[in-house]
Design goal:
The protein has 402 residues and is of the alpha/beta class. The chain folds into two domains: 236 residues, Thiolase/Chalcone synthase (Peroxisomal Thiolase, Chain A, domain 1, 3-Layer(aba) Sandwich); 149 residues, Peroxisomal Thiolase, Chain A, domain 1, CATH 3.40.47.10. The chain has 13 helices and 15 strands. Strands 1, 2, 5, 6, 7, 8, 9, 10, 11, 14 and 15 form an eleven-stranded mixed beta sheet that branches. Strands 3-4 form a two-stranded antiparallel sheet. The longest helix is centred in the first third of the chain and has 16 residues. The chain is globular, with a radius of gyration of 20 Å.
């Protein structure tokens, strides 16, 4: 018999700020964290807007010796993990060493690589001696496991913008199947470097002003940075130890387009949504809110709408579907984790987050995107979508716990 899986801890870092209070207030207020890009010189890039973590000073959170081995992305991951583990206090107490794990979304250490190339090509110097361990995609998973002495299965999942969602889904299945009693999971990303911003500019998918998901005049995505961490536990054990249960993970679905490297496929995305519902043992009529992938690109948003319509049918007309990327920017490998954090806050706090910057309805995005203001509600079941380049799709289903 499969076990139920509880969420007992959350941690978040994004353009809305450091920590859950900043995220809750930002989501409720519809506060747009997208602002002028400061991490890259204005004379070097065309993209002038980004979802930067406001006022972030690494030295305020880490000692110098720690910073020598931490990329900016891993710093965010550690801060979010610290918060999540604090909220889930006691999550690892009495858990055998091999029965707790860290399943985390992969993130390339962009800032460490940028610094290395600067030293080599501009300064004529050697790279930092820890460039490799700082920039390896599994660095954040390793850092979290070391910080919290987690000795069981710990590794990174790499699926571009679905990385955090695949990590959380795999962690959910491992706890549900009895392979782990507790898991720290989520994702991080810090892509706001000259090389990465220029590379995204080359794709011609960045907005010139801001992120307007589902709006008829949407013009592209805005890059963001941050991290999200979720602590999962066996429900029975969590209750027995008196933990506060924030929500329950009830299903996970995956699919691959097998078609195009950058263009999404509605049928494939729909299969992931349907798979999550089937895994949860529920039907579309039970869904109360969808945290959309909603990047703000013309193709993604209409494709996601078509996928939701194909699975949910007429029920979609009654379901709020919002994109919190309109406030945080697209945090790439961290985005699925931030979507889960926003969705759990919606379940526990009685509201649905808005899609900000919305100006005009698009017939190809015929859904209730909760335009420009959060809405009081009492959702019980939510879906969190993540659809990545390469056609790698991941959808999580969550439920409120009474």
């Amino acid at each position: 018999m499969m076990r139920r899986v509880a969420i007992t801890g959350l941690g978040a870092v994004s353009a809305l700020g450091l920590g859950l209070p900043a995220h809750l207030s930002g989501l409720r207020e519809g506060r747009v964290g997208i602002a002028p890009l400061t991490l890259v010189g204005p004379d070097k890039v065309k993209a002038r807007q980004a979802g930067e973590v406001p006022g972030y000073v690494a030295e305020a959170h880490f000692e110098a010796r720690q910073l020598g081995v931490l990329d900016r992305s891993s710093q965010f991951a550690l801060l979010a993990a610290r918060e999540a583990m604090g909220q889930a206090a006691g999550a690892l107490d009495g858990v055998a060493a091999e029965r707790a794990g860290v399943i985390f979304g992969a993130a390339v250490g962009c800032h460490s690589l940028e610094e290395g190339y600067q030293r080599i090509l501009v300064d004529g110097a050697r790279p930092h001696p820890f460039t490799v361990p700082r920039s390896m995609p599994s660095s954040a998973a390793s850092q979290i496991s070391m910080a919290h002495r987690i000795l069981g299965p710990s590794f990174a999942t790499a699926s571009a913008c679905s990385s955090a969602s695949h990590a959380m889904g795999l962690a959910f299945h491992m706890v549900r199947a009895g392979l782990l009693d507790a898991a720290v999971t989520g994702g991080c990303e810090a892509p706001l470097t000259l090389g990465m911003v220029k590379s995204w500019e080359a794709l011609r998918v960045l907005s010139a002003d801001t992120c307007r998901p589902f709006s008829r005049d949407r013009s592209g995505l805005v890059l963001g940075e941050g991290a999200a961490v979720v602590v999962l536990e066996d429900m029975e054990r969590a209750r027995a130890r008196g933990a506060t249960i924030l929500a329950e993970v009830i299903g996970f679905g995956m699919s691959a387009d097998g078609a195009d490297l950058t263009a999404p496929d509605a049928a494939s995305a729909g299969r992931a949504i349907a798979a999550a519902l089937a895994d949860a043992g529920i039907c579309g009529a039970q869904v109360d809110y969808v945290n959309a992938h909603g990047t703000g690109t013309v193709l993604n948003d209409k494709t996601e709408t078509a996928a939701l319509r194909a699975v949910l049918g007429a029920r979609l007309d009654a379901i709020p579907v919002s994109s919190t990327k309109s406030m945080t920017g697209h945090c790439l490998g961290a985005s699925g984790g931030l979507g889960v954090v926003a969705s759990v806050l919606a379940l526990t706090e009685g509201f649905v987050p808005p899609t900000m910057n919305f100006r005009a309805a698009d017939p190809e995005c015929a859904l209730d995107c909760v335009p420009n203001a959060a809405r009081a509600a009492a959702p019980q079941v939510v879906l969190v979508n993540a659809f990545a380049f390469g056609g790698l799709n991941a959808v999580l289903a969550l439920r409120a716990v009474g």
